[in-house]
Amino acid sequence: MSSSKAVVLCSGGIDSTTVMAIAYHQGYDLYSLSFRYGQRHAIELEAAAQVSARYHARQHLVLDLPLAHIGGSALTTSLSIPKGRAYSAIGTDIPPTYVPARNTIFLSFALAWAEVIGAQDIFIGANAVDYSGYPDCREEYLAAFEHMANHALKATVEGSLRIHIRAPLLNLSKAQIIATGISYGVDYALTHSCYDPLPDGVPCGRCDSCILRAKGFQEAGIPDPALVKRSGV
């Protein structure tokens, strides 16, 4: 068991929540980091707050980033979000929901916070199996960022800190991620995945993220507790 500090990128979705549970059960003192970056699904921050509280994060920091001013993504502009795609088509290309340099930007802020609080571990829910084809969710990207990080900080150059980018879900399917979370007692009713929810937060059920979520729960052999909770069953 660890007694070290860890920064955990927390979006309130399945992957980041599972990673939060893993880090919690490994004994880390958790510092949860979320971003309000102009995303149309900013309701995810409500889920992130609940997840951070559930895992007793020492602090849940929400930073405002003006990525909507940069544009280039259907998540931050009026560009159409793909709907109703076959699962087989997801991940075969880089979709318009890709946010330019998002993980690099998020990890850079996590890196800065890690240096300030003395945390050598940064956890991210990156996944390269059941995902939307984003280039910054791949193993080679994360390895490159870790290499850069250890040449970028006062603390790493002076030898008082060694940064590790932890991506424990990288090679798991969505069903395997869910099964892992269930084994840790994760309450997925707290999570939010939809890219284009209705104003009351109800998921569209047709975007790539909703499709991947539904497939994951189906293959895991359990109902999506968020849908069960919403239906009042």
In CATH terms, the superfamily is HUPs
The CATH topology: Rossmann fold
SSE string, helices as H and strands as E: EHEHEHHEHHEHHH
**Estimated helix fraction:** 25-40%
Number of helices: 9
Distance between the termini: 38 Å
Level-1 CATH class name: Alpha Beta
Radius of gyration: 17 Å
Structural class: alpha/beta
Detailed description of the structure:
This protein is α/β, with parallel strands linked by helices and 233 residues long. It has one domain: HUPs (Rossmann fold, 3-Layer(aba) Sandwich), CATH 3.40.50. The protein is 38% helix and 11% strand. The protein is built from 9 helices and 5 strands; from the N terminus they run βαβαβααβααβααα. The protein has helices at 14-25, 44-54, 67-70, 102-117, 139-149, 154-158, 174-183, 208-220, 225-231, and strands at residues 5-9, 29-36, 59-64, 121-123, 164-166. It has a 5-stranded parallel β-sheet with strand order 3-2-1-4-5, sandwiched between helices. α1 links the parallel β1 (5-9) and β2. α1 (14-25) runs parallel beside α7.
List the keywords:
233 residues; alpha/beta; Rossmann fold; 5-stranded parallel sheet; 9 helices; 11% strand; globular
Give a brief description.
The protein is of the alpha/beta class.
List strands and helices in order, with pairings.
Layout: E1 5-9, H1 14-25, E2 29-36, H2 44-54, E3 59-64, H3 67-70, H4 102-117, E4 121-123, H5 139-149, H6 154-158, E5 164-166, H7 174-183, H8 208-220, H9 225-231
